[in-house]
Amino acid sequence: MRTDVVALILGWISLLLIIPLTFSMLMTILLDSFELAIQAFLLPIILSGGFGFILLNYFVRLDTQERLRDKEAFSAVALAWPVIVFFGALPFWLSGVFHGPFTDSSFIDMCRGGVNSWFESMSGFTTTGSTVIAWQMSPNCVSSTVDCIYAQPRGLLLWRSITQWLGGMGIIMLGMVLFARILGGGMSLARAELTGPSLARLRPRLQNTAMMLWGIYICLTIFEMLLLNIFGKMDAFDSINHALTTLPTGGFSTRDGSIGHYDSIAVEGIVIGFMFLAGINFSILSFIVFDRNLKKAFSDEEARNYILILVTATIAVTLSLWFAGWAGGKAFRDSIFQIVSIGTSTGYGSADYVAQGNSWPTFTLLILFFLMVIGASAGSTGGGLKVLRFNLSFKVAWRELSRITNPRQVKPIRMNGEVIEEDYISLVVGLLIVWIALFVSSTLILALFMPSHDVETIASVVASALGNTGPALGAYGPSNTWASMNSGALIWTSLLMWLGRLELLTVLILLHRKTWARDERDSSGGGRSARKSFRLLLKREDKGESN
Predict the structure, then answer these.
(1) Same domain, 83 and 186
(2) 90-99, 128-137, 141-150, 283-292: which range is least confident on average?
(3) Does 263 lie in the same domain as 237?
(4) How far is CA 497 from CA 87, 121, 384, in A?
(5) For residues 407 and 400, what is the distance between their CA atoms, to the nearest angstrom?
(6) Domain identity same for 57 and 187
(7) How far apart are CA 35 and CA 306, in angstroms?
(8) 161 Cβ contact partners less than 8 Å away, ≥ 6 residues apart
(9) What's the number of domains the chain is made of?
(10) Which residues make beta-bridge pairs with 415?
C-alpha cells in the first residue's frame, strides 16, 4: 500500500468538503441564526480543513501524483466515505438536531446522539434516505409535535439534503472536476466509485466527462426545483430540498409524511419523472442531451429492461390493489409512485403500504422487496444490484442450462450485440455471491440486535440498507423512521449502506491482506519532502489554471 497516495486523495477530498460546509453555514445564518451556524459548522470546517492540510503537508511525496495504482484508488475511495461521513455528521450533533454537547442531555443521550448523527450522515451521503429524526431522538420536538423533521433548523435540513446531492453523483467525481491535475489516475478513481456514472461510452478525457455529468446533474436539479415550485405549488425551501434529494435518488424529505404530505398529483408526477431519469444510466442521458440520438439511447438493452421492469411491476401492483378493493385511479396513482420510488432506490413515500389495517397485499410487498434488491441501471445514481447485472446473470444461467443438452456448445454472452468478456462475467457472478452471503449474515446479525422483530422487517431492512433504498417493510415502512432501532443495529445498517454505495468490492479490497502490504521500494520520503510536494502541487495547479 502506497499510503502517500491515499493521503493525497483523502487530503484533497477533506479540503473539498469545506466548500459545502461553508455554504451551509452561510445559509444557516440567513435561515436560522448566526449563533446556530457557528455552533453547528465552524468546528467541522476547522477539523476537515486541518485534517486535509496535515495529510497533504506531512504524508505525501514529490512523486505521489504519479504513483496511483488501482489498489490505492480503491482503498482511498473506500476510506474517503467514512471520513466524509464523520465530518458531515458533526453539524447534526453540534446543532442539537440530535442530543449533543450543547443540549441539556445526559452522557448516554449524547453518545446515542453521536450514533444518530453518524447514521443520518451515512444515510445522506450514501443516498439511502433512512432517517432517525423523531421526537424520541431530537430535542427540537416532542411527542405532540405535528412534524418533527420540519421542526428542525432550516439550515440543517438544507445540509441534510446537500449530503445526498453530493453523494449521488459522487464526491470523488466532483473532486476530479476540481482537482484533476493534482489527483491524476482519474479512471482508477472513477472505477472505484462504482455506482457513479459509467465512463466507457463517454468522452475520452475524464475531466470533461466529469464536468459533463455534473452539468447534466445540476441542470436537472434546477429544472425539477422550478417545476415543483411553479406547478407543484411547493414553497421555495421545500422545492429546493426535494430537488436536491430526488436526482441523487436519496429520498430525504423536509416532512415526516414525505411526498404524501402534499397530496398533490402534480408534485407526484414531477417527482416520478425525475426519479425515472435519475435511475437511467447517465451515459444514455448524455446521448439524449448532447447527441440528440434517442434511437441510440433507447436501443440500450439495460435501458429497455429497466423500463420493462418498472412498467410490469406497476401493472402487477395496480391490478393487485384493484382486486383487493382499491379504486382504479387510486390503485394506479399509489402503485406507479411507489414502484418508481423503490425501483430507483429513491425511497420517497406517497402512501403507507404497510400501515396497520390498510396494508397492501403480500404479493405487492414481495414485488417491492425484489425491486429493493434489483435497483436501477448501472451508471445511474440509483442503488441496488443493478438491472445490468441481473440481466447478465440470467444470460449466464440460461447458457449453462443450454450446455446440459449441448455440452460442446460455445455461446458467448452478449449485451447490445457486443461480446462480454468472461472476466467481467466472473466478476458479476462473484459480486452476486458476495451480496447473498452478506445479506444472509447481516440478517442473522440484525436478528441478534432486534430480537423482537419479525423476519419480514429484518430482511427488508438489510435489503434496503444494501440497496440504499430507505424505507423497508414491516415496522420500518415509509411512514416510520428507524429511530426505534438500538445503537448496534444503527451502526451495522450504516456499514451496510457504505458497502452498498460502493458496491461491496471496493470496500472488501480493504480487507485483503495484500492491500496493506508495505512496498519496501517505496519507503522513502516524508516530512520536508511532503511539505515541498504540497507546495509544488499547489503551484502546478495554479499554473494549469492560468494556462
Answers:
(1) yes
(2) 283-292
(3) yes
(4) 17, 11, 11
(5) 9
(6) yes
(7) 48
(8) 240, 241, 244, 245, 250, 252, 254
(9) 2
(10) 418
CA 265 to CA 112: how far, in whole Å?
39
Residue 427 domain flag:
yes
Q: What is the dihedral of CA 364, 345, 466, 83, to 10 degrees?
A: -160
492 domain-assigned: no
Among the candidates 485, 504, 528, a domain finishes at 485
Nearest to 262 by CA among 228, 222, 309, 291: 228
- CB contact at 8 A, 89 and 113: no
Mean pLDDT of 33-41: 98
Length of the chain: 547
CA–CA gap between residue 485 and residue 424 (Å, rounded):
38
Sole residue written with cell 424505507: 471
Res 379: pLDDT: 78
Amino acid sitting at position 418: E
Co-location of 54 and 142 in the same domain: yes
158 and 276 share one domain: no
Give me the helix-helix angle, 107-125 and 154-169, nearest 10°.
Answer: 40
Digit-coded pLDDT (tens) for 277-323: 999 988 788 778 777 777 777 788 989 999 999 999 999 999 999 99
Whole-angstrom distance, CA of residue 499 vs CA of residue 496: 5
185-227: pLDDT as tens digits: 444 555 554 444 444 444 545 667 777 888 889 999 999 999 9
* Cβ 275 vs Cβ 409: under 8 Å: no
Distance CA 401, CA 167 (A): 40
- Shared domain check, 271 and 180: no
Phi, psi of 204 (to 5 degrees): -65, -35
The answer on 536 and 430 residing in a single domain is no
* Cβ(492)–Cβ(446) below 8 Å: yes
Report whether pLDDT(171) > 80: no
For residues 210 and 89, membership in a common domain is answered with no
Copy the grid coordinates of residue 162. 446537500
**Inside any domain, residue 499:** no
Q: Are 415 and 379 in contact (CB under 8 A)?
A: no
Residue finishing a domain among 485, 504, 530 = 485
What is the domain range of residue 46?
A: 1-194+517-547
* Residues 493, 466: Cα–Cα separation, whole Å: 8
Quick one: CA dihedral 78, 84, 88, 93, positive or negative? positive
For residue 503, tell me if it sits in a domain: no
Buried b (16+ CB within 10 A) or exposed e, 203-218: eeebbebbbbbbebbe
Give dist(CA 366, CA 384) in Å, integer: 16
